[in-house]
Amino acid sequence: MNAVKGFFLDEWYFALPLVVMSLVSAALVIWRILLNKNANTDMDDFLPVFQQTLRKNGIKGAVALCKEEKGLIPNRLFIAGLEAADQGAAAMRRSMANETELEIVPRLHFLLAPILAIAKIATMVGLFFTVISMIQTFDAIGQQTKQGNVKGVAGGADKIGLALFATALGLFTAIPLVFGHVLFKDWIANFEIRIKSAGQKLITLVTNYKKDPKLLDQIEELDSDGDDADDRKKKAKGARRG
User: Fold this and answer.
1) Which of 11, 58, 80, 113 has the fewest CB neighbours in a 10 Å radius?
2) What's the pTM value of the predicted model, to 2 decimals?
3) Is the dihedral of CA 86, 87, 89, 93 positive or negative?
4) Residue 10: which domain range?
């Protein structure tokens, strides 16, 4: 503990930049976690409400519902698709693809570059400070050796361990950041899969709504029962044969 205290007090000009980077990195990670939380929407709960709104209030009502949501899928993806619904399914796909590429994906990657940059810089800065401190320490040891001061040489050797705290603090900052960056990238990959799935579901819902709004009731029954149309037909044929 005395060595750690000595590092922060005696070598404060080395410790301060590393501590600042640690605090900034923690703030960035917390900020990114909050953004991830706000970007999420429970689609299992949202889609039934969306279907009912689309059936009762039409495209405009569905757009108004999506605007009330904070999640990126309803608030950005669905609105982009619904606004192009009058032009057909192909236009909806293009609109949602553009929205995903230009708006949603950049938002998902927001702060990831600074997080990774700090992780790499913290390690290098810690090592750089250690090298500088080691140079100063060996220089002091050399001076004490020339003077024949054995106690001074021993004291210089103790400072070598103190110098290594800069590298340790850099790694202490970098390791959680690299781990967090990997988790954020994995979350983004999973979120992009959800975007594709939600976009296809939206096209199906809007297409069925244009044909006949009552088809949305069948889709809602499908979601609740877990049976598709072919299964229901097979069951019906089996019942007639029986």
Assistant:
1) 113
2) 0.76
3) negative
4) 2-211
